[in-house]
Amino acid sequence: MEQNKNTALLVMDMQVGITAMLPDATSIVNNVSKAIAHARETGIQVIYVVVGFRQGAPEININNKGFAAAKERFANADMAEFMKVSPEIAPVGEEITVTKRRVCAFTGSDLEVILRAKGIRHLVLTGIATSGVVLSTVREAADKDYQLTVIADCCADGDEEVHRVLTTKVFPRQADVVTLEEWVK
User: Fold this and answer.
1) Mind listing the pLDDT tens digit for each residue in 95-153?
2) Residue 155 backbone phi and psi in degrees, to 5
3) CA gyration radius for the chain?
4) Distance between CA atoms of 6 and 3, rounded to whole angstroms?
5) Fewest Cβ atoms closer than 10 Å to its Cβ: which of 59, 93, 162, 177?
6) What is the pTM of this model?
7) pLDDT per residue as tens digits for the range 72-82
């Protein structure tokens, strides 16, 4: 339990506006819910990371191919609704929610400040999409010398083959990749 004090479970982009885009969000939401329950039971800090913008999305630059394509949709969206974490896995008590402005959990957020303040050195990653927030966060967190674990079945991607390649061939170079069942043991 003592080692869990320097560990955080990151629940990334598991917000209503994103889970709604998955054909079968129920499976990943259920798995992430189990990971959150385990973290809470064992004293692991749970930190939520959501992507969001101010009304009108002034943070989106036209040179950012990924976000620029959706700028009009974001500009007219109710950001408060878009950024809400799926109710089945929503934060409780004093759990922290970090808002980021780009794909990576660190970019445009105060995540690193919070991790340093809490003495967190080990990150356990979950989220949507494997090829988006999970990949970007694995890369940057590894460069920042965090110990990393990715729970493969607590991540999802619109392309199953991309998810498979990342979790079996790419992530293991920088992170321990486990299943939910292995992680909760």
Assistant:
1) 999 999 999 999 999 999 999 999 999 999 999 999 999 999 999 999 999 999 999 99
2) -125, 150
3) 16
4) 6
5) 93
6) 0.94
7) 778 788 888 88
Decide: 105 and 49 in contact? Cβ < 8 Å. yes
Residue labelled with tokens 């999802």: 156
**Dist. CA 173–CA 166, nearest whole Å:** 10
- Cα 137 from Cα 83, distance rounded (Å): 19
DSSP string for residues in 46-113: EEEEEE---TT-TT--TT-HHHHTTHHHHHHS-HHHHTPBPGGG---TT-EEEEESSSSSSTTSSHHH
**What type of residue sits at position 29?**
V
H/E segment holding residue 36: helix 25-42
Q: How confident is the model at residue 30 (pLDDT cuts 50, 70, 90)?
A: very high
Mean of the pLDDT values across residues 70-95?
89
